[in-house]
Specification:
365 residues, seven-stranded antiparallel sheet, 2 domains, elongated, alpha+beta
């Protein structure tokens, strides 16, 4: 038990050190990138630094498998150089038993990543998207889906517009049974429009069978209402920006994702991408465990045998390959080529089996 705790402590320290180093490196690179993207928008360095700190957690969340591989390499190479691994094997402890503590730590970190890091990344990513949208267009554009339909807010220097639709097509390019409520900058509502449908086109919305009410003070809205077979409403929104508002599952906490998936289905959107993401997040602890097993299969050897650099390179390359296969399976699942559960759970399970095969071959072969 004491040996397990010793291995777990060494592994946890390796993870913390590598995470800190990569966080600093990613933050520095992202700071340069944010400066390049927003340097012409007249925002201060403090605002750019805030954007960087909001964007870095998502990157760290994505490279967590790489952190696991590097931490495992650091752990076992360190144990091999001090001959602690040799002493452990000489005492009759097999390679698989020596991996109990690192695997347990990886599973715990995977569970924390799903339950705690995921909501943090969702919050920072959502805030980052709102701020970047505000800096670029002078007003944020957000989309919300609830049991009362689809709610969309578009902003500009001329004011804010709230859009409510009961349903839409799959990509939100056409809204049905829609209502537009325009607000003056810093003031109350100035115009209300109800339409049978609204199609998003370059430069604005095209409304069909629309009725327009003026809500300015001193006017009778119903008496001055007008009808239009076709009405153009200017907008800075694009289809890509709407998709970014609700199409990124990473911006939604895993605790709220099942409810959001149900609301997507009710509103008429495709929720397949979000369902694949949910299952992939639930399978993350298994995948992180497989990264530990893969790295250990190449580094649980004494340094006197040589070839340490090649072994480390092989472990990293195999880890990247498995990560690529996992990402490719997710894409196939999102496109409907393979079932959702197969896309999310097959790569982690296959990675664990492959790593166990390598370990057993090294142990018995």
């Amino acid at each position: 038990m004491i040996l397990h705790l010793y291995f777990a402590r060494r592994f946890a320290i390796s993870i913390l050190v590598i995470t800190f180093v990569l966080f600093a490196l990613v933050a520095l690179v992202d700071l340069v990138d944010q400066t390049r993207k927003f340097g012409d928008f007249g925002i201060s360095f403090a605002q750019i630094l805030g954007l960087t700190l909001l964007n870095v957690p998502e990157t760290i969340n994505q490279i967590l498998p790489l952190i696991m591989i590097l931490a495992t390499v650091v752990l076992f190479i360190g144990l091999a150089r001090t001959s602690e691994l040799v002493a452990t094997r000489a005492a009759g402890r097999s390679a698989l038993r020596a991996l109990i503590a690192p695997v347990a730590v990886a599973m715990i970190i995977g569970g924390l990543a799903v339950t705690m890091l995921n909501p943090i990344v969702a919050g920072t990513s959502s805030r980052y998207s709102q701020l970047t949208e505000s800096y670029r267009s002078g007003g944020a554009s957000t989309l919300s889906i609830s049991g009362e339909g689809l709610w969309l807010r578009q902003g500009s220097e001329d004011g804010q517009t709230v859009i409510r639709a009961w349903r839409s097509n799959k990509d939100a390019s056409i809204l049905y049974d829609v209502m537009f409520l325009e607000y003056a900058p810093g003031g109350g509502p100035v115009r209300r429009i109800a339409a049978e449908s609204a199609a998003l086109e370059p430069g604005g919305w095209t409304l069909k069978n629309a009725k327009e009410w003026s809500l300015r003070a001193g006017q009778n809205p119903e008496a001055n209402a007008t009808r239009h077979d076709r009405l153009e409403v200017p907008s800075t929104l694009t289809l890509e920006r709407i998709r970014e508002s609700f199409g990124r599952p990473s911006s939604i906490s895993i605790w709220h994702l099942p409810e959001f998936i149900a609301q997507l289905d009710q509103a008429g959107f495709s929720s397949r991408q979000h369902r694949v993401w949910l299952q992939s997040e639930l399978a993350r602890p298994v995948f992180l465990m497989s990264m530990v097993l893969v790295a250990s299969a190449f580094t649980m050897r004494h340094t006197r045998f040589g070839g340490t650099g090649i072994a480390v390179l092989a472990a990293v390359l195999l880890g990247f390959s498995l990560y690529f296969i996992r990402s490719f399976a997710q894409i196939l699942g999102e496109n409907g080529q393979i079932p959702v559960y197969l896309a999310a759970w097959a790569p982690p399970a296959a990675s664990v089996l492959l790593a166990l095969g390598l370990l057993l071959h090294a142990e018995d072969g």
